[in-house]
Amino acid sequence: MDMMTLWHLTGWEFAALAFAALLVGFSKTAVSGANTVSLAIFAAVLPARASTGVLLPILIAGDVLAVLTYRRHAHWPTLWRLFPAVAAGVVVGTFFLMWADDEAVGTSIGAILLLMAAVTVWRRAADRAAQAAVDAEGDPGGRSGRSGRSGPEEITSRAGRIKARSYGVLGGFTTMVANAGGPVMSLYLLSAGFRKLGFLGTSAFFFLIVNTSKVPFSVGLGLIDAESLLLDAALVLFVVPGALLGKWAVSRINQQLFERLVIAATVVGGVQLLVR
Known about the structure:
The protein has helices at residues 11-29, 35-45, 48-70, 76-99, 102-136, 158-178, 182-191, 196-220, 226-235, 239-249, 255-275. It is mainly alpha-helical. The model is unreliable at 1-5 and 139-150 (pLDDT under 50).
């Protein structure tokens, strides 16, 4: 089947998917929250279940570019702590996809998007409050002066292990069902004390490994097939310029404004899927 008519795509619909693929590349090397916009676009243009299968190879291509860019900054102890819980979440998400129809998947994606938008808003408010408290105390611990550190503060307490497992299971489930594990993992990595480069390097390896491990499950569920890969072959070309743009913009972008736009687009996409 011709890739331009797959699922009866119009030129505008293909252009929207191409923009979403470019945004995937950008998010992998700059702002991970932009992935939720790509997810909303794919789920709006394609059938909800099919969209997860088409998007997965696009995400993996972006992950490869992110690993090549930030591979020296990954924190492997954090990754090993997360993987068992993530695997459990992926298995739960796979069983959900075995019985969920297109409407259930679309509703789930919409609900997940709105939940992640709410979590992001909460995270930003908490970060502002924490920074205000540090400023008021004169930064006695020197925390704000450690911007060059790429690794996290170690979390070895029982509460820290419980938090890692909780985020891991939720991240595995959301990434399997809706490819929406990014906001969950972003929140965990930020709460663990990662700085920008450590955050990007660790998340790059995390999603490359997790997304690659999802491929057999997606193939078994019929979400990835020859037709979806044909469309991926056309869309993956747009990931590279997006990644290059993200690498250039990561130290220049107005993060606060972009996050507001991402949250707004995520809410619109989530609402659209819920009422679709």
